[in-house]
Structures are given as C-alpha cells and as structure tokens.
Amino acid sequence: MPWILFLKLLLKVAGALIIEAGASGSLNRLKAIRKKVKDEREFLKICDECSEFSTGRTVLHHAAAIGHYEICKFLIHNVKVYINPMDYKMTTPVAEAVKGEHVKIVEFLIKHDAVIAIADVEGLTPLHLAILKGNRELIELLLVKHAHIEAESLDGTPLQVAVSRGNAEAVKCLLSHGANPNHFYEVVDCPLVCAVKSRSLECMDLLLEAKADPNLYLSGLSPLGCAAKEGDTKFLESLLKAGADPNLADNVIYKPIEEAALVHNRAGVEILFPVTKRITHFPNWTVDGITEYAHSEEFTAMNTARLQRKLNAINFRATKYTGDKNYGHAVLQYRIASSLYQYNLSWVTKRSLCQARLGIRSHALFGARKCMKLLPNLPVPRHGEIPAGANMIFKKFLKAGLTFMMDPYNEVACRAFRVCMYDYFAWLSQINTLEEILSFRDH
To answer: Which regions are annotated as ANK repeats (predicted)?
Structure first.
C-alpha cells in the first residue's frame, strides 16, 4: 500500500510539473518530463487526468490560453491528449484560445475535432466569446464551421451580445449566416431594445432591414418605449417607419409618449403626439400638457398604483404556476415582474428556485449572485427579527459551498450543496417587501 501511495504522489508531482510547463510555454521542459515518465500511455494519462487544483484546467487549456501553437501541436499530434477537456467552469481549450484571440490555434483545434458547441457555466460558447472580443476573423471562422448561432447564455444569444455592444460588424456576420432577428433569450432585452440601449443606430437599421419585428418584446420597455427616452430621435423615427405601434400596452406601465415626457424629451413627445391615441387620464392633451402632467404628484400616485396592481397580478399568476409545478411559466412571470421592479429579491429567489427545479443550475446560481449584488448585506442574519433557523441555514450554505469547491466531483458534496442552496433560497423567498429587506440590511 505505501508503494501505491508513493506512485500516486509521483504522478501528482509529474502532473503539476506538466501543467507548469504548459502554463509557462516551455516545450523543452514538457518533452523532458515525457522522457522521464518513459511509458507514453502513462504520460498521456497524466496529461488528461491531472488538472490545476483551483481551476480544473489541464495542460492543453494552458497552452491554448497563452497561444503556444507548438505545445498544442505536440500534445495533440505526439501525446494524443483528449481535445475537449472541461475545467470547473466547463471551459474548453478551444474556448481558451478564442478568449486569447489565437486564431491559428482555434483553427488547429477545430481541425482536430474540437467541439465548438460546448457552453461554459454561463452558457457562453466560443462564438459568444469571439463576439465579446469583437474579433471578426474568429466570428467568421466559427460561423463557417457551423457554430450554434442561436445558443442561449446568461448574456443572451450571440446576436443579443453583438447588438448590446453596438458591434455592427458582428451583427452583419450573424445576420448573413442566418441569425433570426426576432429570436431572443428572455434573460436579456430583445435585439431592437439592445440596439437602442447601446445607442447603435447602425445595429438597429441592420435588424430592421432583416425584418426584425418592432413590436416584439418580452416585458419592461418596448423598442419604441426605449427609443422615446433617447435624445437622438432617429431611433424613434426608424422604429415608427418600420411599423412600431405607439399604442401597445402589454406588460408596460407607460406608453412611449409618457416615457418621452418623463425624461423631458420634448422632441420625442412631438414626434409621438400625432400617432398616439389620446390617453384619457391626461387633462390637457397637448405636447406641453403631457409633459407638465407627467411630472405632477397626481400622475406619480396614479402610476404607482397601476404598477402595484400589475405586479400583484403577475405575482398571483407566478404563484399559481409554481403550485401547479409549471415552473417554466412561473420563471417567465417572475422575470417579467423583475423587469418592472428589480428590487424585490423575493421574485429573484423564487425564480431561482423554479430554475433549480427545472435543472437550470447555472441560472439558479447566478440568481443568487444577483441577490447578493443588489443587497450585499442581506444574507447575513442578525438579531431576533429573522427566523431562528436562518443563521444555521446560512452557515450550512457556506460550509456546503466550501466543500463543493474543494471537491466538485464528489457526489455527496454536490447533493449537500444543492440542498443547502434550496434552504437558503427558500428562506430568502419569505422576504416579500422592500421595507423588510432594508430593515434586515440596516441592522
């Protein structure tokens, strides 16, 4: 037994040296270690199975990340390592090469059967990463190699990512390869709203030319409502010309003309006034009358009540869907509610619980991160006003999280982590009002 343990220790040491050689770009050291190991199959096993403790990255990950073509070639041609290993965040070597914008290595890895459809824990594929880098050569390469053009990530589809960054060249590439301008992942605004928010008139024009529907959106601001808040009226004019309806009322609190008035965008109000049906609660239906009334106490009180009624209706539907175990519909309702009022953490946590039920683990975890980002002091229970078991739940959550990070492939640890995550979210979801949250935070 001591001899077996000694051999295992030697293999771990060899693995660490191999990873260090790959990370530092030393091909000579890598070849020297291979000679010392002698058995080629054992060397292959070490390269494939040994990974960096903190990240799970293999030697191929490191070589691809630093852009060392010769090491990549040596590992794949001579050692014949597995080309699609994943680290703890499910990042592959080809994804690392894309992040580093190493086009030659990306081409080489794809030629040797690297899978470009694998997404990391955030849903980001190599195509998403190429767009985030703004590298047109990589974008074209991946599209030619049939990358999944509608892949959904926490940042949206590749088209949503490109438009959100105002990258017109990437938008052209995606649309020319068949990206659907009317398909969008609901965690992010629709492409036309993304174009307005990124202030890219060129992206908007490209989308409209590709027959993007100017009246298609999920919740919150419609494309026209978003454009109404912009000082540059070209967005409004383009959308109206394309058939945007200024009188739509689904999942909105304010009509586009009201949005313009609320930000003192007189030019926007003037453009929208002739095409907007009279809104009955405005006592003076003129450009000046609309702008003045939009800033009155009466208007504010009325719309606060409208918002509350709409949110109550959405929350009722979401609760019913959850009770019926229709978690997909419940997630959609909580998402709509959060877009209208993002500071109710109860909706964020309940949505995460539903996503966990659906097996969408990464989205559930990132929902937790959003909670902590919005109110970073919230998770720490204090005083007797918080449920008695909350402190224990939080400690269990931290302990399970640390255990999981230490050994992410341990099934028992994974189960404990999931259970504690569920307890933690269940506790947070009991907090229903912003006042309660703030009172907890301020203790």
So the answer is: 55-76, 122-154, 154-186, 219-251
